[in-house]
Structures
1.
Amino acid sequence: MSDDAAFARLLVVGGFLGAGKTTALLRLSQLFHDEGRRVALITNDQADNLVDTASLRVRGLRVEEVAGACFCCKFDDLAQKAELLVAQERPDVLLAEPVGSCTDLAATVIAPFRRIYAGRIDVAPYSVLVDPARARQLVLERGFGGFSAKVAYIFLKQLEEADVICVSKADLLAGEARATLLDALAREFPKAAVLATSSVTGEGFARWRELLGSGAAAGTHIVDVDYDTYAEGEAELGWLNMALRLDAEAPFEADALATALVAALAGRLAARGAQVAHLKLLIEADGRTSVANAVGGASGTRLSVASGARTRRAQLIVNARVAIDPQALRALADAVLVAELARVGVHSALVESAHFRPGRPVPTHRDAANA
């Protein structure tokens, strides 16, 4: 089905934790909007209070969320959200962002969606974003930055099933390092189109848009997945989602505070020897958001979305995915946040919190044969 013929086109954009999926979806949404196309989004997480959902909604985008498990395990919820958005928003494009530690999506989400919704919702080629530092560790250094082989297994399987591999944060890559990484990925995963993209500069988005609008088949790279290894890899990560209210007597700079909090959390985790898969923090004030991230390894702390807000009241959301016991992760986050906020004269009140290890994935569907 051509890009213009479908009533709605589903674009699933996966990738490991910290790959920059949400920032990419924001830029991709704007690209479709500039073309005059209506866009709606579906986010996904193991629990409520997702930074990604809040950062998308505050920009006026219609976003639905599937929480409690990955899309593959809550396929019916994903389908219901898609049908709701199609009925209410009549979007030309549905963007779906799965949990970053999830794989086997070609078999458990994309192929079933193509089969069940044939003729009603078109499905674009499946995109997987990769952080360049993690991609380099895997395909060039044959390691994974301190994580176990079971965690690396998830990352590898995500790339094996991709129709399109986007090396995100390409603004951090230059010259020979860029060419070497892209060539290595193309050799390692020859079934996928490999390109460099940057949500900061817009590099590669026109080509990515072209691939997403093509009539190429989606979700046909069905891979063999050892669900014991997959489950054990996910369970190595402690997950933490927190929501807090912030109040201060004097105005504070939201961008600076978001960056400082992430840097402090990442620093304490590094001192504990806890490998960070992804640490993301959002401060929302007066309809504007500051989003700061830290990805383990060489990427460091990054302010991915700047608000420029100066405020006395705000909402803070913290999402952390770290190779550490969840209870220890929660205790460390509590201690760091209290200390850092007090240091700048900001008081906090906990609204909601959840900490856990993901359970074993049990897909609703699995189309094991290539379609």
2.
Amino acid sequence: MDCLDRLCVHTVTCQPWKLEEAVAHFAAAGVRGITTWREAVAGRDLAEARRLITDAGLTVVSHCRGGFFPAMEAAGRRKAIDENRTVIDEAAALGAPVVVLVCGATPGQPLETSRAQIAEGIAAVLPHAQAAGVRLAIEPLHPMYAGDRSAVNTLRQANEMCAQLDSPALGVALDVYHVWWEPGLEAEIRASGEAGTLLAFHVCDWLLPTEDLLLDRGLMGEGCIDIAQIRRWVEAAGFGGWIEVEIFSKRHWARDQAAFLAEIVRAYSDHV
């Protein structure tokens, strides 16, 4: 059985819990990492939230999420840049070393234009991230989200954007849900490792059939992704960081969350 020392659970995975509940239950279950979502800490004293987490013996792994850079109007793009600076400040206050970027897309705008705006937006906030000691991780999203959530849809595109911007504060977040299907995935993971840009590794599963494009992710082992194989590729590329469970699921959110968390721990050991 794999030890739990690298297991991280996102607050959104057990969305019904408030931060205090999530922290207490994660720690009691032997989970050692937590990724904070902005909704979980909204309106809170972030220094107090950080103490709550660290006093329970948990490590803040990353903060979700920044991004959403594209917009038809320049004012919208400037607003996004300002908002991302705020997200970076939140991460620094929480002690999160990484901000995950869901890069955005604008309906009716060519994907090439959105991708250019994403690169411009990231470039604009990179100095702020470097000053704060926070790294930014581009998370490519499955092509089903290309119309309105992200114009960065493959690990190859994310790698190319990292090479283009060429900053030590920039890397990628690999979520198996989004890239498991990608041709040449092993080679792209290897390229990320060689470039030193593989900053995060997220796991869940792809259900057959998938009934909701956003809110029907599966617990590891419930679907068709060979998660263990992707983990082997990731680790062969030099990644030894946290393995983060990120599940959006109306079905699982409707359940008893303590029972769900126990299944997450079992599924991590059995299928990751």
3.
Amino acid sequence: MIYNRLVLILTCIIFTFLVGCEKVEDSLNYKYDAPSLPELPFRYRPNISANYPTLEDFSDEGATLGRVLFYDVRLSANNKMSCSSCHKQAHGFGDNVSKSVGLEGKLTRRNTPSLDYLFLAQAFFWDSREDTLEALVTKNNTHNRAMGLVYSDHLMGELSQASFYPALFEDAFGTEEITQERIGRALAMFLRSLETYRSKADQAGQVFPDTRIVFTPQEERGFQLFVDNVNVGCVGCHGGSAIRSTVGANIGLEMEYADPGMGRIDREKEGHFRIPSLRNIAVTAPYMHDGRFQTLEEVIAHYNNGIQPHHALSIKFHNGIILPPGPRPGIESEPKRLNLSEQDQAAIVAYLRTLTDERFLADIRYSDPFR
């Protein structure tokens, strides 16, 4: 009897182990299956792109190919990571950790930024070192801490051997030829298609068939503080459709920056980093270039009374001076203190939460086609 029970227990353990291994194997290899794509490509061109000539090199077929490449682990050196490993749709195409886990378990140097309205952007990476999306995707895929990819004949051969890629490249570019340049163009098309415009903040005041979207009193108070450029002035840096700026800023995070940001090239810009989008900000924590703040409340508390008097602090963050952000050698005044009440700080956070676009976060056009 005891022997039979031992055999039964051992059999169950072995079965569980084998099933577990099969699931792990499936999770590692599923992306080698053909992607599930619609017969006709989704519409990817952004709704407000008509006046932006940067979208001349754009097609729905190209963005479709870019979507497949974005989620394909073949584009990493170890065939285990994709762009989506760090840029997760559920988190606004950012990551939910301070530093992302890259190739061979190495952490990235900086927090993974969210992705949206990139067709409006003029500089990329936290230090704005690249000025085109094509350069961004190439540099990120080849970075030894991120994906470590080396564009080579081996990679082109691997993609060409996949049953679905030749047809996708032909649809996008007219021939089946697979090149580094075409990979970069297709990924850039997909990234330029990431447009989020259906949040509560976007719809506030609009009348829909059966309802009218309105802010709560707290959200309305937060909105008024956000756009009040005399006292608070968040909109001075975070404006426009993307709710961000095309320049960088030093916001006084510390007196000595371990990461100098743009100051790596220009000392007057030490501690300057690209001003990020605030769209879907509630799901893109942690915050700042190094992911130091875990919550929006911590971010607002920093602006309220935590700005440090760094020598390159942007002008906007000097007490009593309201000007566009930029380098300012030396300190002639104390850093700005908002001195907001706890209620007003909570109101700003409440408004920022209305920038979440749930439909964008679940939009099938941007989702993993291999699942």
4.
Amino acid sequence: MVEPDERLARWTQRVAADADDPVRWEQLAPGPSVAAVASRISSVPRPFLDERVQLPALAADVLGRTGATQLSCLEYAGDAEVRLGAAIGLWVLASDELVGPLEPPLVAANPEAARALAIDALALRVASASDPLDWLADDTRREEAARTLLLWSGRLPAGEDAETARSMLAAIDSLAQNRALNEAYAEHRHRAEVARRLAEARAKEAAARYTRE
């Protein structure tokens, strides 16, 4: 089993800013309701939950081979919680064809990248602090998964403005409620931000050197 701390470290490498970034919320397009997405989560078919189904194959079926290559969570495909969290998200995406499209569609602009990012958010971030099986049985945990899926798909829940949606997710964020994991996560984010700034500084220095030469 991959430690939650390691999965969270990978997530911080995946995104420049997390769910508390107000700029991201202001950029969201109107999407389906939390209830509609949560309903899809609660109705995930048994084959998607079957541990014998390999995550890379399932991801390729739903996202296509090119889309699947953008999933960071495939690095931990052998981890039960990562596999299950990703599989539930993949079912919500696949359900458009099997059940009927959500209105508005779940994924906004640049669908290939948005789908992969949303699946990684569930598999690496949420599943690190909340057992994906709880998303099926517990209303609050299912709402958290639905709101997370909407956010990282680039969608604002129907009937909510950015400030409301942001505060609603923050109130039920299982990672924030787990003090030990949250402290480790904050440290990972700090290190990732320092690494990004160093990389940007080196790139600027290299560009300046090139122009001088």
